[in-house]
Amino acid sequence: MVRPSGLLTRQEEPVPLKSICVTLSIREFVAGVAATLNYENEEKFPLETFFVFPMDEDSAVYSFEAMVDGKTIKAELKDKKKAHIIYESAISHRHQAFLLEEDKCSRDVFCCNVGNLQPGSKVALTLKYVQELPLEADGALRYVLPAVLNPRYRCSGSPEDSCLDLKTPIVPLDDLPYAFSMTATVSSQHGIETIQSNCPLSPIEYLGDKKTSAQISLADGHKFDRDVELLIYYREVHTPSVAVELGNPKNNPDGLMKDPSAMVCFYPNIPEVEPSAICGEFVFLMDCSGSMQCPISKQDKSQLRIEAAKETLILLLKSLPVNCYFNIYAFGSSFEAFFPNSVKYTQDTMEEALRRVKLMRADLGGTEILTPLQVIYREPSTPGHPLQLFVFTDGEVTDTFSIIKEVRNHRLRHRCFSFGIGEGASTSLIKGIARVGGGTSEFITGKDRMQAKALRALKHALQPAVEDISVNWDLPRGLSAKTLSPEQTVLYKGQRLIVYAQLTGTMPPEEGTGEVCLNYTLQGKSCENKVTFSLQPKLDDNFTIHRLAAKAFLQSMDIGFGETPAKTKKDVLKVSIDCGVISSHTAFIAINKDINKPVQGPLACRDIPRPVLLGAAAPMPQCKSVVFGETYLVQLISLQNADGSWDLDEDLARILGISLKDLWSALPVKDADSSSWATVLAVVWLHAKAKHQQCEWELLEKKARTWINSNAASIKKKLVKAAIAFTKSSVDPAVFGI
């Protein structure tokens, strides 16, 4: 069942949250954020308010403070249970109190409580966090400020005291009763190429001769009706770097904050190699819950999630390697498998899967991922074919930690690639299962195409495994490095690797340097990437690197409020409290001790409305431009055979816009196999008509060229030359290896 979304606030009840102001500072690939929530009690009695809001699960929240009547009250980070006791005690004694915590079910949901807000009183609550920015395939750094928190499907056995159980009012995105503003500064020593956003911006002001910094703000009138997304392109991205940050021994005599911390950024130069002869077992777990009937975004003609999912499955099916094994599971409140067990990839099994994909609907109710996951993991392994799991969901569940734990328990037998579909998808779920499953995570929002991101993940899955990964430090005598990041078990070409370490011992003079080396083995060949760096630590009042290092540790050790083992919980609590970074076991608590007398009058509760993209309204009508199966590209790909070839038939002729008779007449080699001619024509069409979508079809096109080389090598040159002339295209014959 979907948890009740809460009663709408009655119009006569003023909403105490008046505005949200966000200040963003991005330096290289790290974002520092300060978000201020401005409250005002316009009623005649004291209030207790609850505000539930989303936040990226990679965010390291390290500060929470209240400004009351010109005085700042800084919150303390405490054991969550103790923080709740302190808060409830303060409220019962009519003292003003403030509480900030992660949800017990998910790292990407927070709740802010304001207790005993006096009549006429104004309070500004500011939370601060730092975050690594993910790197996109085109080199962009992506920052997302989440606006949307969709209702999350509750499965049996989920905790009952989740923040999401608060009956907070839900309103359409356009009707939020509070204002929103955001200003940002972006800086890079390498210079900024350009900045893009899904939201209207005021004119961007670039500073410096090399555009090393930029000032950004949202255009006036922004309603926070969608996630705010920035794509930042630097002139140089793939530059290895090391930053060393000074510790804080005075206030932290022991623990992580005492010593300098280092952040190493690698861009492994993994060479191109031929895919391994081991094909793999590919299992696709596709969300078919009711919410998949919604559009991916609010933008005009945005494709419905389920339609994008179906197109994606077709592309994946056609791109699978010959002789692999595969299966597809559709899930919602229940689930159904296309085959009882994974089957060998043949023409018959591919056609049956294609038929089932075309029948898929978003009609399976809620979102229960755990049960089909358990069924998949119970299936016996296929010898010689390592399991590669692809999970597609809009990520609205409350048993996030249970799902992550299940994937983690089977991490040695598979890799898990995950995809969050649409705004409001849980970053905690999507990133969490990919992180513990040794895969990659992708989010599909705005104009993003699920198809391209899924095919990129498939390319990663087809890469030969990088083995024997290690990070080694060469430091002056008396200085050592303790790695804080979780052990790295996977590397993918084109991806960034960030490693955190604590430097202990005697720091050398200013001119001292160190070296860190990333070592790994690829198909029996040893590879290494080295970076030399200065050992002179820099002062940062926010201790950004220390906070990010703590977050990396917490993500690997803290597996949920009810899931973390007792022994590990002790370490989690120590690192969380020592470094001031919130975890599932800690919460920020502040008490206003300057009020001389208790707040008078009965205490009323007010829940702050939160924006939602999905509602109970009927699904949007499908636009003709996005209805499944109407594009020629999808139709052409649907016709490809499992071995990579195409048949010369009426369906292909219709897509090429040429009669079948003329296609036969143009066959340049008498008695040649017609499939060879058809396959060459199809590949030429892909390069001539769908070049801009090459990332979506390059794997299946490569399979087609492999088939041509195996079945028509002696006449390939004639076929290619004739196909280019016949179709009057300008395709370079070199794409065929000629």
Written overview of the protein:
- Residues 281-462 form the VWFA domain.
- This is von Willebrand factor A domain containing 5A.
- The chain is built from 15 helices and 33 strands.
- By secondary structure, it is α+β, with helices and mostly antiparallel strands.
- The strands form seven sheets. An eight-stranded mixed sheet has the order 5-4-9-2-1-12-15-14.
- α7 (450-462) packs across α14, α13 (674-689) runs antiparallel to α14 (694-711) and α13 crosses α15.
- It is globular, with a radius of gyration of 28 Å.
Secondary structure elements and pairings:
Blueprint: E1 17-27, E2 30-40, E3 47-54, E4 60-68, E5 71-74, E6 76-79, H1 80-92, E7 97-102, E8 109-117, E9 122-132, E10 141-145, E11 170-172, E12 179-187, E13 192-197, E14 205-207, E15 213-217, E16 228-234, E17 241-245, E18 261-266, E19 281-287, H2 305-319, E20 325-331, E21 335-337, E22 343-344, H3 347-359, H4 370-378, E23 387-393, H5 400-409, E24 414-421, H6 427-436, E25 441-444, H7 450-462, E26 466-474, E27 479-483, E28 497-505, E29 513-522, E30 525-534, H8 544-557, H9 566-579, E31 586-591, E32 604-607, E33 610-612, H10 632-639, H11 650-656, H12 660-665, H13 674-689, H14 694-711, H15 716-726
Helix pairs in contact: 2-3, 2-7, 5-6, 7-14, 8-9, 13-14, 13-15
Domain VWFA: 281-462
Domain VIT: 1-131
InterPro entries: VIT (IPR013694), VWF_A (IPR002035), vWFA_dom_sf (IPR036465)
